[in-house]
Amino acid sequence: MKICCIGAGYVGGPTMAMIAKNCVDSKVTVVDLNQERIDSWNSDDLPIYEPGLLEVVKAARGRNLFFSTEIDQTIQDSDIIFISVNTPTKDYGSGKGRAADLRFVESCARNIAKVGGGNKIVVEKSTVPVRTAQMVKEILGESNNGFSYQVLSNPEFLAEGTAIADLENPDRVLIGGDQSKEGLEAIEKVVSLYNQWIDRENIITTNLWSSELSKLTANAFLAQRISSINAISALCEATGADVDEVANAIGTDSRIGPKFLKSSVGFGGSCFQKDILNLSYLCQHFGLPEVAEYWDQVVRMNDYQKDRFVQRIMDAMFNTVSGKKIAILGFAFKKDTNDARESPAIAVCSRLLDERAHLAIYDPQVPKDTILSSLRLDANDKRVSFHDCATDAANGTHAIALLTEWDEFKKLNLKEIYAEMEKPAHFFDGRNLIDPIEVQNAGFRLHRIGKG
Ligand code: UDX
Ligand code: UDX
Predict the structure, then answer these.
(1) Which ligand 2 atom is the nearest neighbour of the CA of 272?
(2) Known catalytic residue: 271?
């Protein structure tokens, strides 16, 4: 089968690399408007940092995996087209700040209709609101080019930082399509791709709308667990309970389970907030304001957690950070990625800058330019400095705020770091990452999420 994927991003790139690795009889071409991105996919310096990705790409690239900007030609030649372009929250017009911006998905559909080339299966890989496939179908259906199209939904559940393991061995693959004869045949074609490395019983097939809605629902449930434990972390701080002990105690109940119960400075990433806002917008649209309100609260709790973290910093530092220097350890929204989209570090740093703090930032993977643009700062802003290691960032600061759980932070030489800081020196552990005894023995005043 000839496969095209439009969008060489965090989802399209790794997913197609895995399909190419496992489906050696298929030719997989990932296309993107962005020439620089494509050049980077064709080099050893990939545009995204993801453990194990380079090996997978190298195994297939040039054999049956290609990266190209020849979008029209690739669409024309392909039997299956995955749409994996970004679907950000709308920042204009109706639904601003809540609805998903589907203009890139729509323009892909229009382009597929225009280019033609034969009957095709068009697969929504991007996360989209339920019933988006209707729009795609209508655009393709009215193309009058004589070809027929089947539209499927195949949402991606990989998490960044563990994308390769998630793709190699997913909990499930979900494929939705029309329940007509042609729809079911199209579903089976895509099933047969995944079935080359994933057991059939782990491939779930549904109707289109269930598949679209399941993706939003999965992300909403995961985020809701984090907001729930973060809500409890505030109560722990007030009462002397320890949030990790509570999480462990409830997580051993097999009905609750242990995952996604780690309290933190808040969830980040390109998906959770966007998808919940979108879910809530859909509920409003379908006349279900109470349901919308229920899910909105998950995002509000997340914002509250980030605010609370900054408030703790303020409280501990005698209610002013003006002119004080604070080291920011970690800017990525989680470890093992260079992605800072919606990272809690953005909200925390922005508020600290509003309070006139100076920030000394270190992240092992997020580029300086990404940090500057996330914080809307220009390159010569004197309030921020960038460093090559945590020790260097902490030098001369009054406090450390640990915002991403990078493994390397567990190995810091805390005594050495403490010696070079202003006293009293504070350590704000937004991820409960570092052994509290070690931090305190080094001399720090320690402040952790969910600990009194
Ligand atoms: C994905 C999904 O598609 C999104 O819906 C989901 O919620 C999160 O994951 P992601 O892969 O993270 O998005 O997006 P991004 O890394 O921004 O990549 C999208 C790519 O599509 C970009 O490289 C962009 O240049 C490309 N693009 C966008 C096109 O090639 N054509 C377009 O019309 C629009
Ligand atoms: C998420 C979903 O997990 C994935 O299935 C979907 O395809 C895309 O969205 P991702 O955002 O890449 O993946 O990472 P995830 O591991 O879910 O973490 C999201 C955020 O939640 C991170 O900021 C992480 O630090 C935070 N988190 C996660 C917690 O604060 N506590 C936890 O217990 C787990």
Answers:
(1) 9
(2) yes
